[in-house]
Amino acid sequence: MTKKVLKLLFVFGILCTYGMQAQTTVNGVVVDAASSLGLPGVSVVVKGTSTGVTTDFDGNYSIDISSTESTLQFSYVGFTTQEIAVNGKSVINVSLIEDVSQLDEVVITALGIKRERKSLGYAVQEVKGEALTETRETNVANALSGKISGIQVIKGSNGPASSSKIVLRGNSSLTGDNQPLIVVDGIPMDNFTGADNTDFFNPSQDMGNGLGDLNPDDIETMTVLKGASAAALYGSRAGNGVILITTKTGKVRKGLGITFSATTGYERLFIKPDSQNSFAQGTEGIFDSKRKLSWGPKITGQTVTNWNGEQETLRAYDNLSSFYNGGFNQNYSLSFQQQVTDGTSLYTSANYLNDDSNIPGTTLERLNLTTRAVTKFGEDNRWTTDVKVQFINTKAGNRPLNGYNNSNAFGTIARLPVSLDVDQFRNTTDQFGKMRWFISENSENPYWSAENRLSTDARDRFLLNGSVKYDITDWLSSEVKAGADIYTTTNESKLYSGSPGNNTGRYSFGKDSFIEKNFSFLLMASQDDIIGKFGGSATLGGNIMGRSSDHMSGTSGDLVVPNLFSLNNGVNKPSISQGSVERRTNSIYGTFQINYDGFIFVDFTGRNDWSSTLSVENRSFFYPSISTSFVFTEMLTKAGSDLPSWLTFGKIRASYATVGNDLSPYQLRNSYYIGNDENGNTTAGTNNTLFNPDLVSELIKSKEVGFEGRFFQNRLGIDAAWYKSNATNQLIALPLDPLSGYTSKMVNAGDVQNTGVEVSINAKIINNEEGLNWEAGINYSTNKNTIESLAEDVTQFRLGGFDNLSVLAIEGGSYGEIWGTKYARVEDATSADFGKIILDGTGLPTAANGGEKFKLGNQQPKAMVGFTNNFTYKNVSFGFMFDARIGGEIFSGTNHALQESGNAAVTVVNGERADIVVDGVVSNDSGGYTANTVGVSPQRYWEAVTLRSGNLGINEANIYDATNVRLRNVNLNYTIPSAWLGNSGLQNVKLGLSANNVWMLKNNLNGVDAESVFATSTNATGFEYLSPPTTSSVFLNLSLSF
Amino acid sequence: MRKILNKTGFVGGMLLAFFSCSEFEEINIDPVAASGDQVQIEYFINSSIGGAQMDPHIAERAFVLYWDRVGGMTRSGGLTTGTANDDWSSDYYNRYISSWLRNINAGIKIADDQIEAGIAREQTPNLRQVARIWRAYIMSEMSDNFGPIPVDGFKGVNPEYSSVKDVYYYVLEELKEATEALDLEMTNPDDALKKLDPAYGYDYAQWKKYGNSLRMRLAMRLSEVDPSKAQSEFESAVASGEFIKTSDDNFAIEEVPGYSDYTGVMTREWNMMELSASLNNLMIGLGGIPSADVLSADKHDYIKPANYMGLKLTDHFSTKTNDPSAGFFFDGLHQTMDPRAYDLFKIPGDFKDPEFNSYPSWAEDAIITKRNLLGATDNVVKEIDAAFTWNAYAGGDWGTKGVKNKVYGWPGTMPRMANKYRNSSKDRIFFASWESYFLVAEAAVKGWTVPMTGKVAYEQGIADSFTYNGVSGELSEYLTSEDYNRVGTSVSWGHIAEPASTVTMTYKDGYTGAAGTMSYKYPENTVYKNGNVKNDLLTKIITQKFIAQTPWLPLETWSDHRRLGLPFFENPVIENPLNNLPAITQGNYMTNSPKFYAQRLKYPSNFPSNIPGGYAQAVEKLGGPDNVFTPLWWAQQN
């Protein structure tokens, strides 16, 4: 390791060819007027002389001048040059305005290093804070949907505190969550996602995702580093890409710099499963008030005796709409953003969110407090401190429960007989305190659950960072940074007495704490024109990461004294679970870049990690990357050629990188656990997973080439990338036969390959500064994920599913293939009946080969497309975005459940339930087939389809094309003309209207949103089962700046 | 410059020191995990026995919803109509029974390691034999449910699957060796150890008896497929005379209320635990004991005369089954009844009986006894008050008759299991003395060498069962009874006369009230001697064993039926075709076939995906497709 460090130091040595001079000095900072971010590499020249300097990474400069009467010229590619007379001033701060006819922009790259976009040899896409907040999404992850090519945001539908999963460039790991690393102001943030347990019958609650704790208003930019090359500096945690979040800092503002913003939102169901509304509760065409089925008589206004013994006129109800009767969201934000003194800028904000979702009883409250102060001081302002404290308090109540169980409210209501009005159960208990419901077994009144099956989880979270930076010379700076993500989550759940199965109630309580600390340093050197036209830069950094978490929870079991929620009030002694996990990673990393004349760039990076979770032999691992960028237009210009008028900018890039993942703690050695049984006697057991001391880190190898071009005076921009990544040596808990003594064993195995193409096109279709402007953008991506190999003698790996339906990774096939049973069909291609469904003698379909499993589809989309449009006219802006997922399949368990219960719209044809003569054939005795003539009742038919060959029926019947196209967002913003504000003290007044999930243009799941996947925390996203429906929302926003 | 370089170098050096990885080893040790030298075999034995006692989650699935139904003790449904539930099977296979086996194997391994290292305690070898006996039981339980399992598993690699034959040969040998190797002279050092055996407190003599009785049970399982092996193993096990002979010897584990491994297996309130038609048909009339002798005087008015079938209500009670009682509602109590019936199951509406179970406590299903039979337009055709009546119904699909019939599916209208078996107040019996005696009786009938006559064993088995159910007072009369039950079997050992093929019974037309007579036909149990024999010794033994094993050993009654086709199990009703039991049709429902009964559980669905090689091997060893209708090696074949 020492050798590597010395190598990097040697690089610094080469770069150290310039000395320092001292005369009268002017200094200041040059910022981008639009973003207030410092601009590095701005040329600052004393006009009429050859004296000049360039700004550093943060836009700071310091120039020695001989005369206080001089004029300074600030120029930077892509920005309008400014000239400012010194007039005796010693500090001159400059805001450069982007020249629309110019090209270059600065982006934040790994380790927070700002770089000119043109110099990057890999794909980076940035989203500005305003673009994130205009959709008013509670969870900032959702705001990324459609805005970045190559990203798939799988949005959970479990209410306002639901998790959303972000997948960049496809799934690379067979296990784990396949999500990018989130880094906030240089400090990683834990983005835990979804439910711990995704069991089909009793999944645990979706606990949201860590990123959802952030207040979108605090975000200045989100930068998505998609490939391994971009992310390589983050080493072992960046295998799935990195999302860098930069929060706001203080900046020069007119007026006080205080902004108050209030948002109110209204939420309702987006789409509902297609339901029949003409056949009543019952079975065999006969009304039955105690059935959970809608196979009863046709509703003709007849009178029946209902579940409560009362006479009632039959009619159909829209129970989903009356249960999910609208949610209300309020969000108040107060922020202060100002350059308070010459040296100090301050950003503070307070944000309060309260979401009373459309799921009865489900709530989310979130409080965010942030302060970030940046201070420059010392000689020539060479010192900078940047300190941020973010405090987040979230409290979620009654997160919905999914799966095939009685506590799944959506499941209950979706399958509720259509002639039964759920509204009559709003009064949840009878005079004896018992739950009111129409049947007594295996079912729960969802209103009762909302009041009596209560759970809360509250989290206090701190995101902290502080850094000190010192500019040693104008080309060398150093930075030391420390930061932490600290949170404690308290969970409590209370079940009140009166439900089926429990007379006294139940109680559980738990606390989880997490802390991740990071300490790092960074040395940065940069200099152009070192030797001739060669320039270069280098960085050297190191990081110590420590992460630990503790878990403690207790469950009372059934209570003795009803509704006294204390762990010691259980019939049995409380059961306690405890756990503690700790890990450390030490890292050294560096980059080295050389460029020639500002148009050819070559970057090398290297990182070495030492992880506490691997054995001494395998603990240290090194990941290098190389990337290059060639700006051919600049080369042509510099060579004196004229560019064709339509071509403004052109660049090609290429990169190769390796990164990897290490292991979870405690997975090297096998051990036992000691317990205590109900009689107080000692028990012991073994681990479920067979550990392996020889595990090494995963290795993801990634290649990428790309093209970036701008045309017609920057009016049209195209960015395209092709990539290929191979995730090898994956750390997989390979399933073992449970009769081996373990249910899985840890191995290094597999090669999962993702290849894909991403294209972003941006166009300023109408560009009229004084009038109408129209910008449009398309993000397109396609990814193909193939399984090159799995472990030795293993050819398939189950990602999820239930019963006969499995989502698999198949060697030689692809990730996320959906396998299950299919209809028996005539397979003989020469037969006249080829392809027809073979029915049994009673006219009903059967499963092929006695229930053998076949490939039925693949969960991977063929392509993802986002199409955004923004119109501005003077003070009005209007934008909308279409979001399309094209291709891929999904198994819809909701459709299955509705068919089985007789609620699905397909169970009624033209308002009737006439016998169905299935279009199929019946085998005759002579080995051939005859057309079916036997009619069956719809109840028989749908029972056969939904019950034969397994609990999910003949799976093929409910495989759907997951293609969906939706108008994801529409927003309208109006800024009141400043002239109207006069001397009111108001600087700015904005009104905004935003609507999400506005219109489903295409969807194939009979009213079930293909986005409402079973669980975000599994990789089997091609499986959907009675998750709450997705919602659409409308937000009104008023923002006042003083 | 040099200064800068020096400074940088210095900082770098500092960092290197700072970056030390020396604590990494320590950090990566799980603070709550135990190492191999911190555990003892008895901890694992305790875990394994406790686990197999079944917490309510798995007990509901495996014991109640699978075994109780398919074993014919409680009302038919689910698996009896061919529907296995992958979730239940997966839980049982992946999470429960494999962990009981895993723990017992881990314990044996710990003991082996200690013995090899010379650090074993004096009692360790005996504990090891106990563990082997217990392991043999769990392996038999698992194999009896699924079929092929590995005999050489738990080595950290995917195991080879063995055929059911090999599994049985293996466990029989294990039981032989382990019972012989037990050192009965050994005394345990302290009470602390005894607490870690919830069955026998490490009384090694008792373990030996259990081992021998278990060997008798498993040997008898092979009686049809491998008679010589069955005989030699059985004779070897029984020869010592050290088997479970009295209730003190029973392998029984005390239940504990609440929710834990030790909670009762039948405690979930939504399980209605209604009397099955199969058991009811066995008990009606069996033993000739008048209900009036057993029931309190207040109930005597409800007792109906002998040879009465009840109300004929065939518009509402389907007859598309070979249940001989089908089509009737019995509007009172039966004249004579096996006296254990009233201990095990409680009369609907008899709320004064402290053992009347009114689960679910949150609903009134159990205490509402008046229900209606409806007409085509939802009109009430007849109201039926099922209080003090005694009925049990076949499962299956009752079609429109079932929809219009609000009586037959209503918990308040049927005898349901008594409170004491449902509220964690008993011991869960894994092996009782009566089973030893019925096994000996069966062996005697087969002519094997056993230490007593078949009659003695048979009558002792009944006696032990009567004692358990608290009806010993009726025993002597019962043992001599030559009355036939509804399937044509009587109690008396000496009475093997077959019943007449029909018998005249009276009934009332339920719709008109008109009295009538009918010719009652005993069901033809075509899976036992072509349905021609209803009252031979084997039928008597299995009938008595079936009733005695209720409610604790439904897995054994299922196995006996799979092995022998005894006792008579009615076919489910098929008003509509059964989606998961297509073998029964409108044309064949009056006959029986092994194809009409679930024979095993399907392996869990993740097995073929996760371990395709092992799965292929298991299915090959099974010798038929992996579905619920493939008979196990020792069972009657299709």
Could you explain how this protein is built, in words?
The complex is a heterodimer of chains A (1042) and B (638). Chain A is mostly beta strands. Chain A contains ten helices and 57 strands. In chain A, the strands form 13 sheets. Chain A has a 22-stranded antiparallel beta barrel. In chain A, a hairpin with a 5-residue loop joins β34 and β35 (682-686). Chain A starts with a helix and ends with a strand. Helix content of chain B is 39%, strand content 8%. In chain B, 59% of the residues are buried. Chains A and B meet through α1, β18, β19, β29 and β30 of A and α1, α2, α3, α5 and α14 of B.
Beta-strand segment tally of chain A: 57
- Radius of gyration of CA atoms of chain A, rounded to a whole number: 31 Å
DSSP helix fraction of chain A: under 10%
The count of β-strands of chain B is: 12
Overall spatial form of chain A: globular
* Global morphology of chain B: globular
Topology (SSEs and partners):
The complex is a heterodimer of chains A (1042) and B (638).
Chain A (H helix, E strand, L loop, with lengths): L1 H14 L8 E9 L10 E4 L5 E3 L5 E6 L5 E5 L6 E4 L8 E3 L9 E3 L5 E3 L7 E5 H5 L17 E5 L8 E5 L12 E4 L2 E3 L29 E7 L2 H4 L10 E6 L10 E12 L12 E2 L2 E2 L15 E3 L5 E3 L5 H5 L3 E13 L4 E13 L6 E15 L5 E15 L11 H6 L31 H7 E19 L4 E20 L10 E26 L2 E25 L16 E22 L3 E12 L8 E11 L1 H7 L8 E13 L12 E5 L5 E5 L2 E2 L8 E13 L4 E20 L8 E23 L5 E18 L6 E7 L2 E6 L4 E6 L16 E3 L14 E5 L4 E11 L2 E11 L2 E4 H9 L14 E2 L2 E4 L5 E3 L3 E2 L1 H10 L11 E3 L2 E12 L2 H4 L6 E16 L19 E2 L6 E11 L1
Parallel strand pairs in A: 1-7, 13-16, 36-39, 44-50, 48-56
Antiparallel strand pairs in A: 1-4, 2-3, 2-5, 5-6, 8-9, 10-15, 11-12, 13-14, 15-16, 17-22, 17-57, 18-19, 20-21, 22-23, 23-24, 24-25, 25-26, 26-27, 27-28, 28-29, 29-30, 30-31, 31-32, 32-33, 33-37, 34-35, 37-38, 38-39, 39-40, 40-46, 41-42, 42-43, 43-45, 46-47, 47-54, 48-53, 49-52, 50-51, 54-55, 55-57
Helix pairs in contact in A: 8-9
Chain B lengths: L1 H17 L5 H4 L13 H12 L3 H15 L15 H32 L6 H23 L17 H18 L9 H4 L9 H18 L5 H13 L11 E4 L22 H7 L7 H4 L13 E5 L15 E2 L10 H5 E2 L23 E5 L5 E6 L10 E2 L1 H6 L11 E2 L9 E5 L1 H13 L8 H16 L5 H5 L22 E8 L5 E7 L15 H13 L4 H11 L8 E2 L31 H5 L1 H11 L16
Parallel strand pairs in B: 2-10, 7-12
Antiparallel strand pairs in B: 1-9, 2-3, 4-8, 5-6, 10-11
Helix pairs in contact in B: 3-5, 3-6, 5-6, 6-7, 6-9, 7-9, 9-10, 9-15, 15-16, 15-18, 16-18, 18-19
